[in-house]
Amino acid sequence: MAKLKKKCDERLERWFEEAMERIKKATGARTQVQLAEVLEVRQSSISDAKRRCSVPSDWFLKLYRSHGLNPNWLSDGQEPVYLNTNRGAVPAENLLRETPASYGRTNARGRVVPVSSMGGAGVDDAVWQPQPVEDLSIPDTFFRPELVVVRVDSAGMEPLIMHGAFVGVDTAQRQHPDGDLCAVHFPHQGLLIRRVFYEDGTFVLRAEDKTHADLHVPADEMASRTLGRVLWVIQSLSHQA
């Protein structure tokens, strides 16, 4: 005789619903289809989890690896939201205050990401490391697993990229097609955003503002000094007094 499955009691059902709501808020998933895509599971797996009132532990691990999310916050609401300090530490109420987007409206879904200074964590470091200084809400379609967001603190790329703009850099893309915008690290200076060109064994980095001189980086140093390619820019088009 088959063993009867134990039904969820009210307490367990409430815990499950609250945990799944935190997962949806943090990932921007609004439907079961979207949630299955984020978790890389079948929709039937989510239905099974709901029936058992049990969130598989590997879902928490997967969300930590993909989004930097704290398993304790996902499970029980214990802050910080992000356990990975490179992704920042956003208070839970910041996520739970967001106005929910309508189902199926991908561009209305968003997530909070940390923003680093251009200088990074260490002035003298040979390799640039992010130093989170604030948080930014971006459209979910702007997000990448290897995204780093920085706030521009120089005028070298004006009027294309204004001082104070938020720039998204994909650190998984480290190629240098001529004319593309890249974030390149210079020790004692931090990151610089420049157009990159390859000329006679040397990479030439050019600013939009022609009062800034071209910079030259030997080809054998460029890979280690490149953070990634610029994906997007969020900025105001008018100067504020």
Shape: elongated
Order of helices and strands: HHHHHHEEEEEEEEHE
Give a count of the beta strands, DSSP E runs of length 2 or more: 9
The residue fraction in helices comes out at: 25-40%
Describe the structure.
The chain has 241 residues and is of the alpha+beta class. It has 2 domains: 91 residues, 434 Repressor (Amino-terminal Domain) (Orthogonal Bundle), CATH 1.10.260; 124 residues, Umud Fragment, subunit A (Ribbon), CATH 2.10.109. Helices cover 27% and strands 25% of the residues. The chain is built from 7 helices and 9 strands; from the N terminus they run ααααααββββββββαβ. A 9-stranded mixed β-sheet has the order 2-1-3-4-9-5-6-7-8, sandwiched between helices. The chain is elongated, with a radius of gyration of 22 Å. The N terminus is likely disordered.
Summarize the structure.
The chain has about 240 residues and is α+β, with helices and mostly antiparallel strands. The chain has helices at about 10-25, 30-40, 45-50, 55-65, 70-75, 90-95, 220-225; strands at about 110-115, 130-140, 145-150, 165-170, 180-185, 190-200, 200-205, 215-220, 225-235.
